[in-house]
Specification:
Blueprint: H1 5-45, H2 48-55, H3 59-80, H4 88-98, H5 103-114, H6 124-137, H7 143-155, H8 159-170, H9 178-189, H10 193-206, H11 210-243, H12 250-255, E1 272-273, E2 279-280, H13 286-297
Antiparallel strand pairs: 1-2
Helix pairs in contact: 2-4, 3-4, 4-5, 5-6, 5-7, 6-7, 7-8, 8-9, 10-11
Length: about 300
């Protein structure tokens, strides 16, 4: 029995170290396999012609799978607040190559691409490319011209191309009458309050996607803020004409009879005058942070 004790003690000392070494080796192997698998996925992901060739008659089904993957990819990145969406375009590229008639991939894919970070990829150029591909493959679907007009209007600030997109789409016999109206208004006014309000309201009413609906609502709220502040500044100018100085507080304009009550933003926070004497959002308003973020992205 005594002769076995040294061996037993040696095993007790060596085996844990051996198992630890095996665990570390397996961890390295698993990491390398995952890396190789990711590399293969990326190669396959970026080879849309290869995917199309391999899919054969299953192309529409595979397109649905890639579209689902694109939505999950965008959703996961969005929830984490990550702006790096470099795989979004390859996913959409493959999806629409496999199924050129998958309209939802063009419409919502373009939204995901065109929105500024962190809400989207910040690539309106690729969004235009995607929508133009959709129009080529689905020339009778007039809503794609509407989407193209939105991208040119909101993201690229190219009002002539926005007007052209709405006008071209209006030629479709199934298109809504307002497409031609919008073409004329944008060509004449560019970025006007009424035009922006109409377009964001249309996005809010027509989209089933909660993220896009939330974005549209935010823009509608900030448009109202911009218009409210513009009108308050005009009233402050009138106050200055009467009393020789601009008001420092909104209450002064109420006391002067220029306002019935202290005005509030869409979330119910009172407007204030800034150091420059201009009307602005209250520091406590959640809209202020969103306004500053959008202004930085312009």
């Amino acid at each position: 029995m005594k002769s076995r004790n040294p061996i037993a003690w040696m095993l007790l000392l060596v085996l844990p170290a051996g198992f630890a070494g095996i665990w570390r080796l397996q961890h390295v192997i698993d990491a390398q396999r995952a890396s190789l698998s990711q590399e293969r996925d990326d190669v396959l992901l970026r080879s849309r012609k290869l995917v199309k060739l391999m899919s054969l008659e299953y192309a529409p089904l595979l397109a649905d799978i890639y579209w689902t993957r694109a939505v999950q990819y965008y959703g996961n990145k969005h929830l984490r607040g990550q702006a790096n969406l470099e795989l979004l375009w390859p996913l959409l590229d493959i999806t629409t190559t496999l199924d050129p008639n998958l309209l939802i991939a063009y419409r919502f894919g373009a939204m995901f691409l065109s929105q500024a970070a962190p809400g989207g990829a910040g690539r309106p150029d690729l969004a235009v490319q995607l929508i133009q591909r959709g129009i080529k493959e689905n020339p009778e679907y007039w809503r794609l011209y509407e989407d193209l007009g939105f991208i040119y209007y909101f993201d690229l600030k190219d009002y002539q191309k926005a007007s052209d997109a709405f006008l071209e789409g209006s030629k479709n016999p199934n298109a809504k009458l307002w497409m031609k109206v919008m073409a004329a208004k944008i060509a004449a006014e560019g970025e006007s309050f009424a035009t922006s309000l109409f377009l964001w309201k249309d996005i809010y009413d027509s989209t089933p996607d909660p993220t896009i609906k939330k974005t549209a609502l935010l823009h509608l709220q900030l448009l109202r803020v911009r218009e409210d502040c513009k009108q308050l500044d005009a009233l402050a100018d009138e106050y200055a004409k009467r009393y020789g100085t601009r008001p420092a507080r909104m209450r002064e304009m109420v006391q002067a009879g220029l306002l019935d009550a202290i005005p509030v933003d869409p979330l119910g926070f009172a407007y204030v005058f800034g150091e420059d004497g201009k009307a602005e959002l209250n520091l406590d308003s959640p809209l202020l942070e969103q306004q500053l973020l959008l202004n930085r992205l312009k």
